């Protein structure tokens, strides 16, 4: 027999790091290796089913799809085999020697930092195969890609120490057979009861039958026993599925170790026929803010698996929703391009958005504690909604949570419904302020008039807030108003402190003229204000111009920002203003006015273009 040549390859450096973590037992729950290998086998069978729609010959006269598990106690081996799509030589090198997914380094960093969460991360990142080395001294894989000839099989072998071998072999059947040579201390995984227990725990709802090889002592023969239910859970009647089964299926579907917060299971018949099973997790995926974050639903067409991460059915602001869609109306040979241009996709998307938002609405009304867990984890993602989905803006707005002056906590737990129900009777608008932090918003001088009049103001300090408020125009007939912008409605509930011309002395009128002359075109206008009680002056944006926070967003994104010209408002009742009013030396007066402007700029923007000049001016005036 002709001996095949063995080729030796080096693992990618990230794989070496990952294997080092695996082999040195940083995972407490080692049984998950079996969950991962069975999941990979199931995916290989799903892929074969899908590819066989257009190429039936890939079945090679064997469409009895299954996963088989057997043990050999004498040799201390555990074998997991499937008759799925299999791998070519190129596939074996790419899939088993490298991690193609971007963000690998970030993942490895997460692994090293979160020692208590490693079992969650391994499945979430999709590097489950490497978990084999937690329990094995050596792993060998015999595989052949469906539709190729028997002599195109591949043997892949490694002890997980930096290198792996690839050899051409003869393999009569398509699919993949993984043999684990177990470490001495891991021989519990040779026990039939232990394997059955793990399959029952993690893989019961895999739609492929999983068989375990048993030995009949009486007849001295081996036989195969099915050890999972192999029923598509989503196709069953809701009333026959327990909460525990829903939770177990979620964990199988997502590799999440935690239970979901809530789920929604729907069978729809009529114009469209589909089944959806949507879940909301407790925790965000580690890469939810990555640009290439994989999200979306697992798509089935007439019970046949088609693809993972079908993002076409949910908008980006709902990317935390996990689950599946099984449609009777889409073509079996559907591709991403077909999905994007298919009318059925648009109808399904509309329906699934509604179901997702209704699920959130339900939990927000029925379980405030659970909704707060959701908001703390995914609130920032949901805040993208008003800009992305104008059609559902009312329900999204109702789901948003804020903090405010009266809330007196940085936790965002107030709904707009609550804000409106507690509104001052003279109040016409929903007032808010945006700032870089909760403390900056809470201590802004813009709030003084509102505190005095017992009017609540929403305190917005997330980076996305300013952008979101461009799309949130009104809620239940009440318009939103930024309090750092010019607004005449404030005067209506502040009549008693309104500054009347006859109350302003001649000296103050002259003072105002001198300030205007001193500042020239540095500001848009200078005027007296009744907004302030404790602060000498404040800057306002013109009602038609960009706010400070929006300018910061543009600047952070590398976009050019037009020069902001503020309205400089002065509190004529403030002692400092009254003292400056008495200064006759023009140079000294100008220095004080520039200091006041810098103070107001610092309060408004959080920084100055030239802080050293401000400090020098302040020190000079203090010395005098």
What does this structure look like?
Belongs to the heat shock protein 90 family. The protein is an alpha+beta fold and 624 residues long. The chain has four domains: 221 residues, Heat Shock Protein 90 (2-Layer Sandwich); 135 residues, Ribosomal Protein S5, domain 2; 95 residues, Rossmann fold (3-Layer(aba) Sandwich); 125 residues, Heat shock protein 90, C-terminal domain (Four Helix Bundle (Hemerythrin (Met), subunit A)). Helices cover 36% and strands 19% of the residues. Strands 1-6-5-4-7-3-2-8-9 form a nine-stranded mixed β-sheet, covered by helices on one side. It has a five-stranded mixed β-sheet with strand order 10-11-14-12-13, with helices on both faces. Helix 4 packs antiparallel against helix 5, helix 9 packs across helix 10 and helix 20 crosses helix 21. It is elongated and about 115 Å long. About 2% of the residues have low confidence.
